[in-house]
Amino acid sequence: METYKFKTNINCGSCVKAVTPHLNKLEGVQEWKVDTDNPDKVLEVQASEADAQAIKSTVEKAGFKAEQI
């Protein structure tokens, strides 16, 4: 299992709610969370099959930015 971290603009509970269905249906994602208290709004994703590019494009499809860190 890999852990990926992304700097995002997911900055509030409503943003998390908006991205939730997209990340939850991405195959291979085991667990994810966004640290909205961190200035970089770090999204941490644990995935067994999904890769960084798939996660990034899923977040972007939901209308947010994601830059791997």
Automatic annotation (TrEMBL):
Domain HMA: 1-67
Source organism superkingdom: Bacteria
CDD domains on file: HMA (cd00371)
InterPro entries to which the protein is assigned, alphabetical: HMA_dom (IPR006121), HMA_dom_sf (IPR036163)
Annotated protein name in UniProt: Heavy-metal-associated domain-containing protein
